[in-house]
Amino acid sequence: MNGGTARLGAARGRLGAPGVRAASGATAACWRRAPRPTAAAAARSARARVVSFKSDPDAAPPAAAVAVAAAPLAPRPAAPNLLPTAGGVVAPRDAGVQLACSEPTYGLRLTYSRAGRPLAGCDRIIARIGHSGWSNTADVELTPSPADPDLFEGAHGIPASQLANPAHAEVQVVFRGVGAGGRECWDNNGGHDWQLSVELAQEGLVLPAERAGPMRALVSSLLLRLDALAAAGLLTAEQFASLRNQAWAQDFALVRAYQTVRDVADDSAVASLLLSRFNFLRRPGLHVVHVASEMVPVAKVGGLGDVVTGLAKAHQQSGILSEVILPKYDCIAYAAIQELRPLRSIEVAFDGRRVATRVWSGVVEGLPVTFLEPSNGMFWRRQFYGAPDDLERFMFFARAALEWLLASGKQPDVLHLHDWQSAAVAPLLAEEFRGRGLTQPRCVFTIHNIAFQGWMTPPLLSKVGLDPDRMARPDAMLDDSRPGFAPGSHDCSLLRGAIAFSDRVTTVSPTYAREVFLPEFGMGAQAILSRHRHKFSGILNGIDNDNWCPEADPFLPAHFSAADRAGKEDCKRLLLEELGLPYTTPNWVLQRQSGGQHQQLQLQQLQQHADQGNGNGNGNGAAARPGRPLLAVVSRLTEQKGLPLIEHGIKTALARGAQVVVLGAASEPDVQRRWEDMARDHGSGPDARIVLRYDEGLAHRIYAAADAILVPSFFEPCGLTQLIALRYGTIPIVNRTGGLADTVRDVADGGVPENARNGFVLNGREEARVQVAVDRAMDAFLDANEWWRGELVARAMAQDWSWSRSAADYLSLYRGAL
C-alpha cells in the first residue's frame, strides 16, 4: 500500500472500549492472558491482543495510517423485562431478577487518515465493510476527529451468527469519499482491499489468523493427512469427520499441533497427537468440492483453470472448506504440487470392467487437491484434451470422483462442476450414487463456454453406468430440436445432463447469461436452459490478485502500482528489448484518419535525452511527445476470439505507427499456418512480433508492458484477458459481448460514472468497427497522452476485479441450493 500503512488489529473488549486499538509497527504485538473463564460469558471478557501488519516490513510507520481493529464483544446486559427474541437475547421473567445475554459480536473500530491518500480532497469518508468474501456489506460514515481534521473514525458490529464459522472472522474494508459537487472516489488499498483475519482460541483469546499462503497450505496439508490416516484405518469415521470439521474451522490447537508433526512419517504418532486435540464442539462450516479438468498452475488450457483455483482460494479465505478433484495427467506441472503422496486405490466400474484407480493427494496454491489416476492409462496422453476418446476419459473421471467421495466417507455440501468434462457427475449422482449413500451433496454446474457440450450417441452413456433410454429424453440429455435430428445420432450431450440434474446452474457473466437464450449464442441449448431458467444465473468471474499482481509479479523485470506507475514504462522498454524491437523513437509517420480520409502527419523529431528514451523529456524542460503505442494480443487463436477483427486491428495499429506484440497458439492447423504467414509478413521488422505458443512468463510481461490490448471476440462468456490487463494498467479495446460488456465501459460512455470508464468498445463483427475503435485508442494515446498515462491508467488499475465479490455471490448460490 502506498501513502500509508494498513494496520490490522485484533482485540477483545466492548465496542468503543479504550483497550481496543491498533498498534503501530511491523507485526508488533502485545497481549495479556485472560483469567480462566467460569462461563461462556466470562470467556468473552478476555483482555486484548493487538497485532499490526504492514505492506512493507522494512518501512518506518507513518504518522497517519489506516487502521482496522476487531473485538468480539462481551455479552451486553439487556433492558429490564426483555423477553427472548430472534436476536438471541434470553431473559427469564422474574419479579426481582432479570438476566439477559445477547449474541457475541465482533466490533470493528476504523480509523482513516485522508492525508496523502486518494480521498485527500473529500469532506465525507464512508467505510464499506464486508466479511466472509464481501457478504453482508454495510456502509458506515466515519466522523472527523476533533484533534486532527484529516483523521476520520467509526465503529461497526458484526454478529457472530452471520459467520460461517463464529470462531473465525474474515473482514474486508474499502473507503469511499465524497468531495465537492458530490464527486465520489474510492480507496481500495491499491486493489487489495484492507483485510482483517482473526480466530477465537480455546482459551477465549482473539488471535491473529494468518491469511497468507503458508497458513492455507498448512490447513490443506492437515486435511489431506487426515485423508491418509483414515485410509490407513488409524481414525474411525466419527473421528475423521470431527477432525476435518476442526481443521477447516482452523481450530487453533489442532492446527498448531499438526504444525509440529507435519514432516513426521510415522502415521500412528501423527494420529495420536491429533486425537489428543479432538474437539466435538467445533461447528462444521460449508464444504465445497470442485470437480474439474483444469486448475492453475498445474493444469491449464484456458480460463477454466484460473476460475477453479481463484474461486476455491477466495472461499477458503472466508472459512469454507474448498477442495479440488482433478485427473492425474502425465503432463501436469508436478513442481507446483506440494506433499504429493498416494492415498489408496479404488475400483471404478467402466464399460463392463472394474478399473483400478490410484488416489493421490497434494497441496496446490494452498488448496487440498485429490488426483485420480486410472491404471488403464486414460490420462497418460501428454495432453489435456484432443484425444479421440475424450468423452470416455472424462465420463470415467466423473464416476471416479464420486466413487472416491463414497469410499472416503466424505459428504460435502456442494459439488461444483465445471463444463462438460465433469458434467456427468450430476446425472450419476442423481441416478446412482445418492442411492448408494452419497446423500448430502447438492450440485452446482458452471458453463464456462456453451460451445463445448460433450456431444455423443446415447449408447456411449452405458459405459459409465447411465441408462441410455432414461437419458435420451428431451428432459434429460437429448436435444431433438436441432436441425437434422435423427434418433441415435450425436444428439445427447453431457452439458444438457448437468443442466437437467444440477440444483443450480451458472455461467460466467450476467450478459452471457442473457445471450445464451439467443440462437446466435445458445448453440442449441436454448430450450433446456429455458426449461431450467428458474435455477440459472450469471456470476462474473474474477481474477486471483495473488497471481496477477504488478507490485510483486515474479515474471516482471520491474514492479509498479496504481500510485507509482514508473515501473510500467520500464517493463515496456525491457519487453521490446527482449523481443528485438526498438524502444527509441526517431521521426516516424503516423496515419491519422480525418473526415474519412487518411492524411500523412509528419512528426518532427524531438531533442532526445542522452538515453533516447521512449516518451522521455528532452532534457531542457520541454514536454516530450509520447512514444510509439504498444498494442498487445494475448489469446487463443480461434474463431470465437474474432480472428478477422484481430488481423484488421493489427493492420490498423501498424498503419498508425504503433508497435504490436501477439502471443497465442491455434489448435486448428489451417489457422496456425495463416498466423505463421502473418508472422513472416509482419513479425520480422521493427514494428511487430508474433509469438505462436503459450508462454506464461511472457504473457505476464506483455500485460505489464503494453499500452493497450485488443480483445474483439465474436462472443466471450466472461474473459479474463481484459481483467488482467486492467490490473496491469493496460487499456482494453473490446467487442460489446458477454463478460467484456460487463467489465469494460467506453471512455466516452456518458451513461456510466467516470470512474467506470476504462476502455474502448466496438459493437459488431465488421472490420470497420474495429478500425474505428483502434483509431480512437491511438488518437487518445497520442493526443491526450498525459490523460492516458495519468488518469486512465490509474483508474483502470484502481478497479477491483478480484474474486471477493463474485465469491460472495457463489456462497449465496451454494446456500440457496442446500
From TrEMBL:
Pfam families: Glyco_transf_5, Glycos_transf_1. Gene3D superfamilies: Glycogen Phosphorylase B. Residues 605-625 are annotated as: Disordered. It catalyses: [(1->4)-alpha-D-glucosyl](n) + ADP-alpha-D-glucose = [(1->4)-alpha-D-glucosyl](n+1) + ADP + H(+). SUPFAM superfamilies: UDP-Glycosyltransferase/glycogen phosphorylase. Pathway: Glycan biosynthesis; starch biosynthesis. Keywords: Glycosyltransferase, Starch biosynthesis, Transferase. Residues 287-530 form the Starch synthase catalytic domain. Its EC number is 2.4.1.21. Coiled coil: none annotated. GO terms for biological process: starch biosynthetic process. It is an enzyme of class 2 (transferase). It comes from the Eukaryota. InterPro entries: Glyco_trans_1 (IPR001296), GS/SS (IPR011835), Starch_synth_cat_dom (IPR013534). GO terms for molecular function: alpha-1,4-glucan glucosyltransferase (ADP-glucose donor) activity; alpha-1,4-glucan glucosyltransferase (UDP-glucose donor) activity. Residues 626-750 form the Glycosyl transferase family domain. PANTHER family: PTHR46083, STARCH SYNTHASE, CHLOROPLASTIC_AMYLOPLASTIC (PTHR46083:SF9). Belongs to the glycosyltransferase 1 family. Bacterial/plant glycogen synthase subfamily. This is starch synthase. It comes from Raphidocelis subcapitata. The lineage of its organism: Eukaryota, Viridiplantae, Chlorophyta, core chlorophytes, Chlorophyceae.
